[in-house]
Amino acid sequence: MLLLNRDEVKRLLDMAGCIEAVEKAFAELASGTAVMPLRINLFTPDGLALYMPAYLKKMGALSCKVVTSYKANPQKHGLPTIMGKMLLQDPETGDVICTMDAAYLTAVRTGAASGVATKYLARHDRGQTAVIFGAGVQARAQLWAMTVVRDIARAYVYDISREAVRNFIQEMGEQLDLEIVAAESPERALEEADIICTATSSPTPVFPGEKVREGTHLNCVGSHTPETRELDSAIIKRAKIIADSRQACLNEAGDIIIPLREGAIKESHLYAELGEVVTSKKPSRTDDKEITLFKSTGLAIQDAAAAKLVYDKAVAMGIGTEVEL
Ligand SMILES: NC(=O)c1ccc[n+]([C@@H]2O[C@H](COP(=O)([O-])OP(=O)(O)OC[C@H]3O[C@@H](n4cnc5c(N)ncnc54)[C@H](O)[C@@H]3O)[C@@H](O)[C@H]2O)c1
What pTM was computed for the model? Predict the structure, then answer.
């Protein structure tokens, strides 16, 4: 079995390649060649543990991720909110052929799903402004993905932690060679946004939905329990909603479940799944005024596609440590 640590995964996984792989995974999901049971969500007193299996027939990827979301980890233990490990199996024998760190992989594959959604749904103008809510781990990969699929001229970042904003600007400004500015307020940032990404750990809405400009595209990745949400009912009501998975959103996403419970929307308001847009079963944006919103809960097919990409590259380049169990 091959072991790949975080640094090795980081060396092997690039955003453009991951967007391509994740796009194929969403196409497999919509075409019926993917097997993805609903993930198991196990709540502990301190956080949430998720068990996420998937099989992608065309890509030949079989995997299971164990990932945790412990919101107090950064303050309490100096550890990241999201940590995980990935088991990749040989689909012919079922044997586990690789174990890899999945914290970085999770951020990149989450960014990649937003990249796919943005590629299909956002307007095509040059020199767009991206606004990122949250300045943590996921937020970095969100902005990175935006720069791969659209011409981003500048970005605003908003976070309740000033230190997080400062670090984000320094690190991502250098990495992406991009002008990144701290947003004065959510409202002020919305006035210029062409693309918005929400990647916060907030349990309540992070901006007023009625202030979002016509034509904006949003990628919303942060909320994933029925009682928490980053988005208010106003933006959910105004937007054309594309889910990563309808079933997952209806089971897990407070962003969708709370407006449904309030009667602000009906289930039919969920327009499509991303895979249906990728495979042209459902048309994407119809005009430049429409607000489009990708709601991401995070799917095991994204992990399977990203892990297969990393593993194949590792084998080709001779990276990693072989162990006999
Ligand atoms: N959809 C997916 O596939 C997916 C994948 C991984 C993580 N997530 C979720 O994304 C969220 C962020 O994860 P992370 O790893 O980046 O965590 P993180 O702790 O690194 O960053 C979260 C940031 O959100 C900020 N924040 C909290 N409330 C805010 C508010 N009201 N306005 C602005 N910023 C606020 C925090 O200060 C922090 O900097 C979590 O909820 C996580 O569970 C989703």
Answer: 0.96
Q: Of 31, 136, 70, 86, give the one whose Cα is nearest residue 302.
A: 86
Report pLDDT digits (tens) over 77-119: 999 988 999 999 999 999 999 999 999 999 999 999 999 999 9
Cβ of residue 114 lying under 6 Å from some atom of ligand 1: no
**Which residues are within 8 A (CB) of 208 and not within 5 positions of it... i.e. 6 or more apart?**
186, 187, 190, 232, 234
Residue pair 222/200 in contact (Cβ under 8 Å)? The answer is yes
Give nearest CA residue, ligand 1 atom 2.
298
- Residue 65 is among the residues annotated as catalytic for this protein: yes
Average pLDDT, rounded, for the chain = 97
| Residue of 57, 58, 65, 308 marked active site | 65
Q: Domains of the chain, with CATH numbers?
A: 2-106+301-322 (3.30.1780.10), 112-298 (3.40.50.720)
The response to whether residue 302 sits with its C-beta less than 6 Å from ligand 1 reads no
What is the arrangement of strands in the sheet containing 292-295, beginning at the earlier edge strand? 179-182, 152-158, 128-133, 195-198, 217-220, 292-295, 240-243, 270-273
Is the CB of residue 128 less than 8 Å from the CB of residue 150?
yes
168-182 per-position pLDDT tens digit: 999 999 999 999 999
In this predicted structure, the answer to whether residue 59 has a pLDDT above a threshold of 90 is yes
pLDDT tier at 224 (50, 70, 90 boundaries)?
A: confident
pLDDT digits (tens, 9 = 90+) for 107-158: 999 999 999 999 999 999 999 999 999 999 999 999 999 999 999 999 999 9
CA of 91 to the centre of ligand 1 (A): 33
199: Cβ below 6 Å to ligand 1? Answer: yes
Ligand 1 pocket member 170 (CB < 6 A): no
Give residue 199 CA to ligand 1 midpoint distance, Å: 5
Q: Residue 126 CB: number of other CB atoms within 10 A?
A: 8
